[in-house]
Amino acid sequence: MKLLNDHELEAALREIGAKHYHNLHPFHKMLHSGGCTREQVQAWALNRYYYQCSIPRKDALIVGRFPDAESRRAWRQRLVDHDGDAPGDGGIARWLRLATGVGLDAELVESCRAILPITRYAVDAYVSFVRERSLLEAVASSLTEMFSPTIISERVAGMLANYDFVDRDTLVYFNARLHQAPRDADFALNYVKTHARTVEQQQAALGALRFKCDLLWAQLDALYMAYVTPGMIPAGAFLSEALSLPVAA
């Protein structure tokens, strides 16, 4: 492997997204094309909540690792974006609004007791990755945000067009993300370009982004296996009375 210049490094990072980002996943395509039942949409919203409420945990870990105040100030804005400045504010609260908007009970969602085992395993693995790997890798793993405006546009347009139980108020979470995600991605990308100065560091950054893409993909694998494949819902996971798929023995 050769040392990449900034342009080549960014191109390599973007190529990972083009090949591995979860907008390519069959469950994503079902969700946005109207191919999901209401119960499958609920399962997605319920499981995704655990990811959403874990984002500030991983961001708090990253903030504490920056040696300079300027970087800490920039990154801590992510905590405000997700946790808000008061109860009922922020991205987590807006995701709960989405979940209840598609018919879920708020207490069930916030308890996270009915999420899939792979959801818990994958999200916890992400928090552990940020805690245990280098700061460069932790920052690079967030670069899936470079690709999120595309998936957000697909998600909002597709869900509004295809589900009569979804409206713009339900999907309000995504409004802020259309400007938050590019802002955050710009900072993280500049950080990676500045600090990945050896072949080993560049490969570590690329590997971190691939890890994050795989993690997001695995969460949709779990949803597809449980809620599209008959007989594969694990005991204790979300099961609506209207969902006809049997629970795995």
UniProtKB/TrEMBL annotation:
It is an enzyme of class 1 (oxidoreductase). HAMAP family: PQQ_syn_PqqC. Its EC number is 1.3.3.11. NCBIfam families: PQQ_syn_pqqC. Residues 11-221 form the Thiaminase-2/PQQC domain. Belongs to the PqqC family. SUPFAM superfamilies: Heme oxygenase-like (SSF48613). It holds the Pfam family TENA_THI-4. One of its GO terms (biological process) is pyrroloquinoline quinone biosynthetic process. Keywords: Oxidoreductase, PQQ biosynthesis. GO terms for molecular function: pyrroloquinoline-quinone synthase activity. This is Pyrroloquinoline-quinone synthase. It catalyses: 6-(2-amino-2-carboxyethyl)-7,8-dioxo-1,2,3,4,7,8-hexahydroquinoline-2,4-dicarboxylate + 3 O2 = pyrroloquinoline quinone + 2 H2O2 + 2 H2O + H(+). Ring cyclization and eight-electron oxidation of 3a-(2-amino-2-carboxyethyl)-4,5-dioxo-4,5,6,7,8,9-hexahydroquinoline-7,9-dicarboxylic-acid to PQQ. Transmembrane segments: none annotated. It comes from the Bacteria. Pathway: Cofactor biosynthesis; pyrroloquinoline quinone biosynthesis.
